[in-house]
Every structure is written in structure tokens, then in C-alpha cells.
Design brief:
single chain; about 270 residues; mainly beta; five-stranded antiparallel sheet; 3 helices; 25 strands; about 10% helix; about 45% strand
Length: about 270
């Protein structure tokens, strides 16, 4: 018995008592083009909707939100939720419950607070730096309520490490940037832990430091002398050649780089 059907992110979902491969389940499933795929952890589903870019289900156990591959219960109560929808930016629930979130709510509730989605007023930049440099990405947002942040790399949540931190703040810091850090980064900003907005991707470009191969021909020879002198005199904007000329790893090309460059140049 199908109890609910909805479209979320362009895909068809259904919930209820489902029979797949001859076996019955109280669950939810996503249409894969030729067959239904069960959603693990979704049980006793009576209602579903797409709300704020998340799949929401309701049923005998309450209301849950799909966060990646796991389900998060939105609040205590709202047992036996039989219908879900949205109204003026709020999640609407109906059913035979009498309370939601320790508040009296007989048969109907506006689940909140939700408010409008937060607004990102300053997108994170796309810096170009040399290896081992310190660099940060910053997103500025506003919203009527409590803002929280989660930085992602190629769509996956980041967690703090000794070299990369601030993953749950508005500023992501790389203490010693490495070429392996060169990827698109986005910042997911949530308002009141409900509505959310994702920043534009910021691409971090990190060039290897101190190779002395300024023209990238895989060797250090006379052809590297002119670009080395140019980097030494002009202090050009950060580029692969400038980083290659920084043999001391100081983040700048100066007199200290001359001796090690000559040593590389004369090496057999």
C-alpha cells in the first residue's frame, strides 16, 4: 500500500507498505529508472515531502529529515504524522499526535522555527598560493536567527585537523597548504539549523614550491635564469613560476633564493 509520493531533487520517492522482490516493507524507496531502491532506516512511512532541499518523511515514529545517508529526527512528538507540506517557509505536519517538541499541538503543527534561507553577502574567494603557505577561505552570511556553518570539499563535509581548521565556522584556514588541497570548496550556511544556503564554489590553487624549474620543462637549466630574475625583481603575482623560484619556502622570492637556485643550476 503506497501512502505517500513526492519528487525531491528531480527524483521520484514513495513510502508506505512496499513489496520489493516479493517481500513487504514499511519503508520508503527511490525510483532508479528501472526499479525501486529502498532507503535504509526509513520505517513506517505515512507521509513525505521535499522541504528546503531535504527529503522529509513522517509516520508512526515521528518526522525525520534525510541527511546524506542517515535520518535525523526533527523533534520529539509528532507521532503518527500522516501528512506533510509547507506554508510560508514552515514545514506543516498533520496527524493524530497531540504534541510536538513538548508543545501542545493537536493534530496540526507548523514545525519551526524556519524563517527564510540565510543570505550569503560575501562569497569565499578563489586564492592562488604557494605550497606551505597559510591561506583562508571566508564566507559572510546574514539571517534572522542563529547561523551555523559547514565547509565541504567536493561536496563532502570537512572536519578539523591540525593543518585545516575552522570547518564549522565562517572561515576555513589552511595552516600549511599542500597541492593535495587544490579542490573546490563550498560553505553550507544554516539558519536555526533548518533552512540553508550553499556558497558558490571557491577553488584553491596551490603550486609546488622550490622546484627551480620555472619554465616547467622538467629540468633546471639556462632557460630558467631569465624567469628567475624576473620573479626576483618584479615580485609577480603568485604563479607556478613564482612558487618554483621560492627555494627557501618563505612565500616570497628574494636574495635568499639566489644561492640555492645557482646550486640547482650548476648541479650535474
Amino acid at each position: 500500500m503506497v501512502a505517500a509520493v513526492t519528487v525531491h531533487n528531480g527524483q521520484l520517492y514513495t513510502g508506505g507498505y512496499l513489496r520489493l522482490n516479493g517481500t513487504g516493507f514499511y519503508s520508503a524507496a527511490r525510483w532508479g529508472g528501472s526499479s525501486w531502491n529502498l532507503l535504509p532506516g526509513a520505517t513506517q512511512v505515512l507521509a513525505m515531502t521535499s522541504f528546503n532541499e531535504r527529503l522529509i518523511i513522517g509516520g508512526y515514529s515521528g518526522i525525520f529529515r534525510l541527511d546524506g545517508i542517515s535520518w535525523t529526527q526533527l523533534s520529539e512528538g509528532a507521532k503518527t504524522t500522516s501528512t506533510l507540506g509547507s506554508y510560508q517557509g514552515n514545514l506543516v505536519a498533520g496527524g493524530s499526535f497531540i504534541s510536538v517538541g513538548n508543545q501542545n499541538a493537536a493534530f496540526f503543527a507548523l514545525y519551526g522555527p524556519t524563517g527564510v534561507s540565510p543570505s550569503i553577502t560575501q562569497q569565499p574567494p578563489s586564492p592562488i598560493v604557494c605550497q606551505n603557505s597559510s591561506v583562508s577561505l571566508r564566507a559572510t552570511a546574514i539571517g534572522d536567527g542563529t547561523l551555523s556553518y559547514q565547509w565541504q570539499k567536493s561536496g563532502l563535509d570537512l572536519t578539523d585537523t591540525p593543518d585545516i581548521f575552522g570547518t564549522q565556522s565562517n572561515t576555513l584556514v589552511f595552516a600549511h597548504a599542500q597541492p593535495t588541497d587544490s579542490d573546490p570548496y563550498t560553505c553550507v550556511v544554516k539558519l536555526n539549523d533548518c533552512t540553508q544556503t550553499t556558497s558558490k564554489p571557491a577553488t584553491l590553487t596551490i603550486h609546488p614550491t622550490g622546484s627551480a624549474d620555472l619554465n616547467n620543462d622538467k629540468t633546471t637549466n639556462a632557460l630558467d635564469i631569465a624567469p628567475f630574475i624576473a620573479a626576483l625583481i618584479n615580485h609577480d603575482p603568485v604563479s607556478a613560476a613564482l612558487c618554483a623560484a621560492d627555494l627557501t619556502g618563505e612565500g616570497i622570492v628574494n636574495d635568499a633564493d639566489i644561492s640555492p637556485f645557482v646550486t640547482r643550476l650548476l648541479a650535474p
